[in-house]
Amino acid sequence: MALTMNSQNWNSSFNLWWPGYIYSGVTVNDGIAYFCGANAEVQKVTFTYNDDGSATWVSNSLKANFPYNITAEFYGIDFINISNGWVVGQRNYIFHTVNSGVNWTRYNITPAVPNRNYNVVYINLVADSAREVWVAGENGAILKAPSDVQVGTPWTTLKSGTTASLNAICFTLDSTAYFAGTGGVILKTSDNGNTFKQLTTGTSKTLNSISFMDENYGFAVGDSGTFLKTINAGETWIPIPNDRTKNLYCVRFLKRYSYR
To answer: Which residues, including other chains, have CB under 8 Å from residue 91's CB and lie 6 or more apart?
Structure first.
């Protein structure tokens, strides 16, 4: 499948990606991105820029590279670099690749919660080149582990203090992060997950994405056109009036503090 785009329009010679939903994507450099979605699909996408400012995208399905036949949804994906990445989804699925999706290794979290859905994965730079993998999902689940965690090594399960389903993660500092989810919930940790504070958002709508431009200035978006802004590190959230009534799924700043 090839997709050609420019700032004015999108043109595709096939149905985009695969039948069903695309849930998450990450760009790892100026020419490679990964996407995940319905029916356990993961796509590696190569794109090149044309002289007229448009870009041509070519996708390659990685689904056949998983160790067994999977039919669950994949909700979250993140990569450290072009080779090293993680994907998470339904039924406790957490997979890791170190060779650009040629092979995938499953991580079993113990004690497992039957059929728990993990909605988002985020790789955080904690110090120098050290990184942690954070995973969040149903019933306030938040887990973390070093990015070089070995199969069979326990992950750290954090006490979020909520039963909301968490859909998004954004770090603004090494140890400061925000989690957004159902019921208008936004959690904040300032000590790398030792404690969490539930912030007042003024909405009960599901929040699907959160992004910060710096330590103080951020946005969250969600169902029914919900659009929130903070200018004081989440202490207060201001609704932004807009004419959207459909669900909003993603907001991001194109710099260090980003997305999902």
So the answer is: 72, 115, 116, 117
Cα–Cα distance, 181 to 192 (Å, whole number)? 19
Output helix, strand, coil percentages for the chain, rounded to the nearest 5. 5, 45, 50
Residue by residue, pLDDT tens for the chain (260 residues) are 333 334 344 444 334 556 678 899 998 987 899 999 999 999 999 888 788 777 788 888 999 999 888 888 999 999 999 999 999 999 899 999 999 999 999 998 877 777 789 999 999 877 666 799 999 999 999 999 999 999 989 899 999 999 999 999 999 988 999 999 999 999 999 999 999 999 999 999 999 999 999 999 999 999 999 999 999 999 999 999 888 889 999 888 765 444 33
Cα–Cα distance between 27 and 260 in angstroms, integer? 12
Tokens standing for residue 7: 């700032």
Q: Which domains does the chain have, with CATH numbers?
A: 107-260 (2.130.10.10)
**Cβ-contact 235, 199 below 8 angstroms:** yes
Q: Are 123 and 147 in contact (CB under 8 A)?
A: yes
